[in-house]
Amino acid sequence: MKITFKKLFECTIEDILIAWNKGFEGYFVQMDMTAELFFNRIVNEGLSLKHSIVAFDREEPIAIVLNGFRMIDGKKIAWNGGTGIATNYRGKGVSKLLMEEVLKIYAEEDIEMATLEAIKENVRAIRLYEKFGYSITDSLVFLSGYPEKRLPWNTSIQTKIIRPEQLATFSFYKDNVPWQCQWQSVKSGEAQIYLDKEQNTLGYSLFKRVWGQEGNLEKVYLYQSEICGDVSEEIIQGVISSISEGESSPINFITINGSLSNPVIQYLLNHGFKVTTEQVQMVKKI
């Protein structure tokens, strides 16, 4: 076994897809990629072709790590957007070599904090990251369910519609959320701010909506939903109604990497939403 590394921009798309699809073969969730899906992900999530790597055993692509960098609150943050190793090379020390190469890139780029998410059941990967200085900072869930249709529109809650990129200009916006839930990864989505009658901020949401062929709202991907100040079911119900736009037919709400400490996530769990995936957020201070 002779392992070498190439940056993504030095690789053919065929080698990249082989590294990715073989690297996530038999994974906890379906991760297969086509060229179109892969490059859409690179663009949408702000990943770097220059700082992501493919590992080769001689000429064979056997592993991949995707990386993205952002400035958040004055600090340069790195995100590991996926580490995959081909089945035949797992347990043979390749993961250690990958992490050493990635951390070398982080050092060259003066990264101050490295982040990633790992599937909760992937104990081997979590232990590897912990050996390299990462610590678990949060428990995350993907939820799926249908909000109760009995809830009326809450007229005491006012909605202000803004662009996702405007969220960062507000002091109440949370930027220390998982990478895919940050506004930079949801530019094609929508954002709302919620106010009471005195124009005090109650909270905000960042989401994407999907409409059916007949123009009806079918699905909502919820990336952030935060309540400012005191939390009440009335406010959460008003937020859901605002996103639903009063639609009477069932709408599937799917939360993306929601924190279990978030009252909105707890409300949804208490009202019939099911957990589809559990992850941990991990952080390494450099």
Describe the structure.
The chain is of the alpha+beta class. It folds into two domains: 3-111, Aminopeptidase (3-Layer(aba) Sandwich), CATH 3.40.630.30; 143-283, Aminopeptidase (3-Layer(aba) Sandwich), CATH 3.40.630. Helices cover 23% and strands 37% of the residues. It is built from six helices and twelve strands. It has helices spanning 13-23, 35-44, 94-108, 123-131, 233-244, 263-270; strands at 3-7, 53-57, 60-72, 75-85, 113-119, 135-145, 158-162, 190-195, 201-211, 217-227, 252-259, 274-285. It has a twelve-stranded mixed beta sheet with strand order 1-2-3-4-5-12-6-11-10-9-8-7, sandwiched between helices. Strand 9 (201-211) and strand 10 (217-227) form a beta hairpin. The model has no long low-confidence stretch (mean pLDDT 93).
Strand content: 35-45%
CATH topology group of the largest domain: Aminopeptidase
Radius of gyration over C-alpha positions, nearest whole angstrom:
20 Å
Q: Helicity level, as a percent range?
A: 10-25%
Q: Please tally the β strands and state the result.
A: 12
Q: Within the largest sheet, what's the order of strands?
A: 1-2-3-4-5-12-6-11-10-9-8-7
Low-confidence stretches: none
What general form does the structure show?
A: elongated
Distance between the termini: 31 Å
